[in-house]
Amino acid sequence: MPKIFEYLGILIFFYSNEHEPIHVHGKYDSSESKAEFYIVDGKIVEIKIKSIKGLKPLTGGKLKDFEVFLEKYADKIVQKWIDYFVYHKDIEFEKINTRIK
Questions:
Q1: Which of 15, 20, 84, 86 is the most buried (most CB within 10 A)?
Q2: 8-52 pLDDT, tens per residue?
Q3: Contact 3, 91 (CB under 8 A)
Q4: Residue 94 three-state SS
């Protein structure tokens, strides 16, 4: 389970056996949601946050924090996905403790 970011206590990661579409998981305490990235002609055109069957989804402020983070770091997340799953590179974990404005 490659951890790629932590943002205000939300762990953002991939599972090692992921599948397309490109997506990332966000976990805080016992809640977890995933965000799918839809890419057309090399540009992210949409990010959809979805629940995961059998798990309590992120809600309230933590869901909003996850959404804000995804908007700001979408390109970096997609690049880390490509580096890990396509090029089999090690990826760097980044911890961000300052709220994104």
A1: 84
A2: 999 999 987 777 789 999 999 999 999 999 999 999 999 999 999
A3: no
A4: strand
